[in-house]
Design brief:
Elements: E1 2-7, H1 15-28, E2 34-39, E3 55-58, H2 66-83, E4 87-91, H3 95-100, E5 109-113, H4 126-146, E6 149-152, H5 155-161, E7 166-168, E8 187-191, H6 200-213, E9 218-222, H7 228-237, E10 244-248, E11 262-265, H8 274-281, E12 286-289, H9 295-298, E13 305-308, H10 313-325, H11 327-340, H12 346-366
Helix pairs in contact: 1-12, 6-10
Length: 368
């Protein structure tokens, strides 16, 4: 069975690259599986560890014109047809990825939705944004009808996209057994790209209020991104420079959770947060906004963490400070979190993927 994944950036620090490293490493160890990943971004080294048996190819886009995109699609199609895969999985959720769905790769195609874009990406007036967002929704709707199967990470995402050929397969955790967090420190952790969608502005407003109640507690934020300078300015304006630390990125974030007492998560929207999975499997209780769409699929409110009504800052502060004040509550929720995350273990998630590949190949072969 040969699987070709197509993605925007296999070398980066985002969730898609991390999940691809987990999936490809699992599949390549199975008998008769070959895995090839095609990335439109080039770099010398991958941020996450990939099996040396996984073939990574680069098909870059030269320029930003329509001609450059058409040239990319021609080279991509030629490369995939030459590879003769049993299935193609598109892991590029931008406009480019949806346009790929209209190409004939001579194989069944799966579109994997890693992100749900709830905010128009275009700039300009309200009318221009509205028209662009409307056209993008039409493109998404049409493209998803073209693929053999549409994989979403949660039932909420399937309901939102109203995709008739959707199947729900959550992301696998992919973590080996690690020492569980002892939850004794006076430190909270947040993890994610430094972008506006991760809600860091409201996180800092929340921590400013928390600091007045628990002045000895500190917040470490792990991630890199274009929003770093703005966040540094906000941290300084809130007089939190000695309390909130931007720690950069690390490919081994799972080794750090044991040093913290809880995780806070304030994204404006999520498709399916790997950060929540990783923290909870390591025994960290979490406090997260119940934003669209992912956290509610992972966190069981008041059992393994707290889900707070979106934008309810005072409630968020109350839930976070209740965990900070009560080690027994942290320990109880952390133990529940570690147990509850077993439902996302790699073996079970990849069993579903393997079955999907077998079914799609069988259906495709029967139509020849």
């Amino acid at each position: 069975m040969k699987i070709v994944y197509v993605t925007n950036d296999v070398f980066g620090q985002g969730g898609v690259a991390r999940v691809l490293s987990i999936k490809s490493s699992f599949l390549i160890e199975k008998p008769n599986y070959q895995v090839e990943i095609i990335s439109s971004t080039i770099a010398e080294l991958t941020f996450f560890k990939f099996s040396p048996s996984v073939l990574i190819k680069h098909i870059p886009i030269y320029g930003r014109s329509a001609f450059s995109l058409l040239s990319y699609f021609r080279r991509l199609k030629k490369e995939i047809i030459k590879a003769k895969p049993d299935c193609v999985v598109i892991c590029d959720n931008g406009i480019k990825g949806h346009l790929m769905c209209f190409l004939d790769f001579k194989a069944p195609v799966v579109f994997e939705s890693h992100a749900i874009d709830l905010i128009p990406l275009s700039k300009g007036t309200f009318l221009i944004k509205s028209v662009a967002h409307y056209l993008k929704k039409i493109l998404i709707r049409m493209s998803l009808k073209r693929v053999s199967k549409h994989v979403v990470l949660s039932q909420s995402a399937a309901d939102l996209l109203k995709s008739k050929n959707a199947i729900v397969i959550p992301n696998p955790i992919g973590l080996s057994a690690k020492p569980k967090a002892n939850l004794n420190s006076q430190k909270a952790i947040a993890v994610g790209r430094l972008t506006p969608s991760k809600g860091y502005e409201r996180m800092l407003r929340i921590w400013k209020k928390i600091h007045q109640i628990h002045p000895d507690w500190k917040l470490d934020i792990y991630g890199e991104g274009s929003y770093k300078n703005q966040l540094l300015e906000l941290i300084e304006s809130y007089n939190l420079s000695d309390i909130v630390n931007l720690k950069g990125s690390t490919p081994k974030i799972e080794n750090l959770y044991k040093d913290y007492a809880l995780l806070i998560h304030t994204s404006l929207y999520e498709s399916f947060s790997m950060v929540l999975l990783e923290a909870m499997v390591n025994g960290l209780p979490v406090v997260a906004y119940d934003c669209p769409l992912g956290p509610r699929e992972i966190v069981t409110n008041e059992e393994d963490g707290f889900l707070v009504e979106d934008n309810a800052e005072e409630a968020f502060v109350e839930r976070a400070t209740s965990l900070m004040s009560d080690h027994m509550l942290r320990s109880h929720m952390g133990q529940n979190a570690s147990v509850n995350m077993k439902r996302f273990e790699t073996k079970e998630m990849m069993r579903q993927w393997q079955q999907l590949f077998v079914d799609l190949k069988k259906d495709y072969d029967s139509m020849k």
